[in-house]
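Dear colleagues,

As part of the handover before I leave the project, I'm documenting each prediction I ran so the next person doesn't have to rerun anything. This entry is a single chain, and its sequence is reproduced below.
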Amino acid sequence: MTPFILICVAMLVAAVALVVLPLVRNVPAAAKVEPVAPNATVAPAAMILALPIAASVLYATLSKFPWDNPFGRRTFSLVPFLLV
């Protein structure tokens, strides 16, 4: 279970980086007389909070794992499917 969680965390960090980095990047001015656009601060902060929370809620609601009683889950074997 630990490698799965580490992979999920790595993918979550990558998703947050792909969303947040364009928001905090400086946009160069088209002409010398135009000011440089300011960095966004609220949108990246909202995305940093919203993406992990949404991913956690979706995973908890859509997964079939019995979170209340992990030891009471039914065992499932792939052996009958592999012998076909």
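Helices lie at 2-24, 42-62, 79-82. The chain has three helices and no strands.

All the best with the project,
I.
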